[in-house]
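Tokens for G-protein coupled receptors family 1 profile domain-containing protein. Go.
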Amino acid sequence: IMINATMLGSFTLLGFKDSSAKYRLTLFALTLLCYIVIIFVNVALILTIILEEKLHKPMYIFLCNLCFNSLYGTAAFHPKFLFDLLSNTHVISYAGCLLQVFFIYSYATTDFSILAVMSYDRYLAICRPLEYHSIMTKQRVAFLVCFSRLVPMICQSAVVIMSSKLILCGFQVEKLYCENWSFIKLSCYSTTLNNIVGFFVIILYCGHALFILCSYFQLVTFALRYPERRRKFLQTCMPHLICLTNVSATLLFDVMYARYGSESVPQSLKNFMAIQFLIIPPMLNPIIYGLNLTQVRNSFFRLCRYKKQVEG
């Protein structure tokens, strides 16, 4: 039966179908705790960078952008997910579904763009320190911040607009949230063009990942050649590599499983694989940076002590 997508009104999220009420209450408590931690650690790092003038440097501005992106992406998932855990009906409107696709996947691709920009910044700082300040000007920093946000949004806008034109033959999404592949699978007609655009976006961000790896190859080579630079590499680049591995692994799980996953896999494992990139990177990235970057850590504790003194 062909159904005009705009007439559907809402989609049913099938990811909740095998969860009991008791299981959902436990998951609600854990998810709420995770979301509170995500908000706290990201806001704490953003405020530390904004309030501490000596952190107004390109590296920390990009880090602030990464934390803001985590808040942006998780806001598109966690409130709705928490509401669904307490509800007996798990539906999302047609417009809400498309918006969720846009926000969640623009968040994921923006993460890659920001990490690519950060790797470029670290390459200049460690391998070309004498040229760093002449290259990384305020204008260049502003351009790179805009690039890391606007290009993913343009890509995802194209994806969502194309998906909104599809005529659908169903209204059941096989996940805990709306994502583009589930949307495309409901189409009554060929989605070749959508698939081509989707693979173009994937290749584009695989290119980002390759650029990051090439940058770090140069950094590792440089650090091995000049031992005096090794400490700076370990302190400022290891968090980037951990974040890249974290984001890449979780997104690869989601993208590959959505397309090639087995139906025999338990629903609970499917759910975990689908949402981990919305929980693990946003929670761990600020902690990794906060613990590893001495200036950030010291500034955070100094601001906390100052606040206590003011309140006292």
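Strands lie at 10-13, 91-93, 172-173.
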